[in-house]
């Protein structure tokens, strides 16, 4: 098993710093790989990255929710970045500006803000975590 970063990821990056086996990589180019990605072969399932994510975007693979229920975070609507579930294709138009764990600007152009109580199947976000590190598909550690 591995841990999975879902489209709730807004590129905070705190997870990268705590991973003991350095298997989390920021996606690049961001337009194609908008989240952070976990190498499923190297991940030891320690769980250290989970509490570091301010967006609660990381789950053990078997626990990625198919019926995630959105709730506001710090008074703002919960947000997905470029979710792969085709349900959201028409809503990928929202601009987001925030900051990562180092205080650096994070700007994302393909996000979707969720209504309080809106249900989301985050399991559609599992395959890219594998694809990112698959030879001939994603940049893997070369994106660092
Ligand atoms: Fe790294 Fe542990 Fe998170 Fe796996 S579960 S990505 S090993 S911090």
In short:
This protein is mainly beta and 144 residues long. The chain contains two helices and nine strands, in the order βαββββββββα.
Write up what this structure looks like.
This protein has one domain (3-139): 2-Layer Sandwich (Alpha-Beta Plaits), CATH 3.30.70.20. 8% of the residues lie in helices and 24% in strands. It contains two helices and nine strands; from the N terminus they run βαββββββββα. It has helices spanning 14-18, 126-131; strands at 3-5, 24-26, 36-38, 58-60, 68-69, 79-81, 94-99, 105-113, 119-120. The strands form four sheets. Strands 6-8-7 form a three-stranded antiparallel β-sheet, with no helix packed on it. The chain has a two-stranded antiparallel ribbon with strand order 1-4. The structure holds iron/sulfur cluster. Residues 3, 18-19, 21, 23-24, 38, 43-49 line the site of iron/sulfur cluster (SF4).
Name of the CATH first level: Alpha Beta
Structural class: mainly beta
The SSE order reads EHEEEEEEEEH
CATH architectural type: 2-Layer Sandwich
**Helical segment tally?**
2
Largest sheet: 3 strands, antiparallel
Count of extended strands? 9
Shape: globular
Mean pLDDT: 95
The end-to-end span amounts to 23 Å
Cofactors, ions and other ligands in the entry: iron/sulfur cluster
Strand line-up across the major sheet: 6-8-7
Radius of gyration over C-alpha positions, nearest whole angstrom? 14 Å
CATH topology: Alpha-Beta Plaits
Which percent bin holds the helix content? Answer: under 10%
Low-confidence stretches: none
How many structural units, i.e. domains?
1
Percent of residues in beta strands? 15-25%
């Amino acid at each position: 098993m591995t841990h999975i970063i879902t489209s709730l990821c807004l590129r905070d990056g705190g997870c990268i710093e705590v991973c003991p086996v350095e298997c989390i990589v920021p996606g690049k180019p961001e337009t194609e790989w908008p989240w952070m990605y976990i190498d499923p072969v190297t991940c030891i399932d320690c769980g250290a990255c989970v509490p570091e994510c301010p967006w609660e975007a990381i789950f053990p693979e078997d626990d990625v929710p198919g019926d995630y229920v959105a709730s506001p975070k710090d008074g703002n609507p919960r947000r997905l970045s470029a979710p792969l579930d085709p349900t959201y294709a028409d809503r990928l138009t929202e601009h987001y500006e925030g900051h990562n764990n180092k205080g650096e600007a994070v700007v994302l152009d393909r996000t979707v803000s969720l209504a309080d109580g809106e249900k989301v199947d985050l399991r559609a976000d599992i395959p890219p975590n594998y694809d990112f590190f698959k030879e001939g598909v994603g940049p893997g550690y070369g994106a660092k």
